Amino acid sequence: MATKRKIPLRKSVVSGEVIDKRDLLRIVRNKEGEVFIDPTGKQNGRGAYIKLDNEEAQLAKKKQVLNRSFSMEVPESFYDELIAYVDHKVKRRELGLE
């Protein structure tokens, strides 16, 4: 009898929804204080997840949620980079490339 595989779930820091990890984007703050997007989901550091959705990325910038999650000031330029990355990923998914 085949065992049912466990689906990893994570909570979005923007909406608070618990979603399948594959539908989320991980953002990491490492020990040096650098904040970056982690496409692999395996980088060392404190991770925060947001849903791969354009509206959620815009809301993350508006509410400055990563500042609270990482207890530090995240630059506006990072939020702009995050919005562009999410937009790119959403378009790739719509085309069926991912």
UniProtKB/TrEMBL annotation:
SUPFAM superfamilies: YlxR-like. InterPro entries: YlxR (IPR037465), YlxR-like_sf (IPR035931), YlxR_dom (IPR007393). Residues 10-83 form the YlxR domain. This is RNA-binding protein YlxR (DUF448 family). The lineage of its organism: Bacteria, Bacillati, Bacillota, Bacilli, Lactobacillales.
